[in-house]
């Protein structure tokens, strides 16, 4: 490996929240959502589930031949866990209200799996955060769901949007809840010899001498 700029950064996700975080870092990237089966396997632990999906998404984009040689592919997946129950994206507005009623006035865990691939190399991990919901009445939850913000989000809320009004507090990394934990992402990039240099680029580090 020689040093220099990474040829291409690809986000293997259609999530606008993950894209927003990469833009916040000033990075140029291409969006290429992965097509994988996102079903949870019977008995699969939430952390195993999100990390497996992130890895499968990254591998799928690398394997489909759509990326440049040496491109870096970033993938992720997020779930909400409340009292041992995994909460995914709601099926419809009625389901969204039911999920939010379950979370109201209580604390839940958010897990985000991240995978970074470069050619045959792949690194992954899981980051966790706790979110405490305010005690919110049903009418308020219905009004929030009516905005449409709930429907594509695990746990039926978006902390970076209007859903912030439902949150009483966070323990841990805010970006875990958004779905793109920056600290974990940069750690995984580093394992592949890729460094974020604050000048809106990713740089390949030379191999150890």
Task: Provide the descriptors you would attach to this structure in a database record.
alpha+beta; single chain; Maf protein; elongated; seven-stranded mixed sheet
What does this structure look like?
The longest helix has 18 residues, at 46-63. β2, α1 and β3 form a beta-alpha-beta unit. 29% of the residues lie in helices and 28% in strands. The protein has one domain (4-202): Maf protein (Alpha-Beta Complex). α3 packs across α4. Strands 2, 3, 4, 5, 6, 7 and 8 form a 7-stranded mixed beta sheet that branches. A 3-stranded antiparallel beta sheet has the order 1-10-9. It has 6 helices and 10 strands, in the order ββαβαββαββαβααββ. It is of the alpha+beta class and 209 residues long. The model has no long low-confidence stretch (mean pLDDT 92). The protein has helices at 16-24, 46-63, 93-103, 138-145, 174-178, 182-191, and strands at 4-5, 9-11, 30-31, 72-82, 85-87, 107-118, 121-133, 167-172, 194-196, 202-204. The chain is elongated and about 55 Å long.
């Amino acid at each position: 490996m020689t040093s220099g700029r990474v040829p291409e950064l690809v986000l293997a996700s259609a999530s606008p929240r993950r894209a927003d975080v990469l833009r916040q870092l000033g990075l140029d990237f291409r969006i290429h959502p992965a097509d994988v089966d996102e079903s949870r396997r019977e008995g699969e632990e939430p952390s195993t589930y999100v990390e497996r999906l992130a890895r499968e998404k990254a591998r799928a984009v690398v394997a489909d031949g759509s990326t440049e040689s040496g491109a870096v592919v970033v993938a992720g997946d997020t779930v909400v866990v409340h009292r041992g129950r995994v909460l995914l994206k709601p099926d419809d507005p009625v389901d969204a209200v039911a999920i939010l009623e379950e979370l109201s006035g209580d604390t839940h865990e958010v897990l985000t799996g991240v995978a970074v691939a470069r050619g045959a190399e792949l690194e992954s991990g899981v980051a966790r955060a706790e979110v405490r919901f305010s005690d919110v009445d049903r009418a308020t939850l219905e009004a929030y769901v009516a905005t449409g913000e709930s429907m594509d989000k695990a746990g039926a809320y978006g902390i970076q949007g209007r859903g912030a009004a439902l949150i009483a507090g966070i323990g841990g990394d805010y970006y875990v809840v958004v779905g793109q934990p920056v600290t974990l992402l940069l750690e995984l990039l580093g394992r592949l010899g890729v460094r974020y240099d604050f000048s809106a680029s990713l740089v390949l580090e030379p191999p150890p001498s």
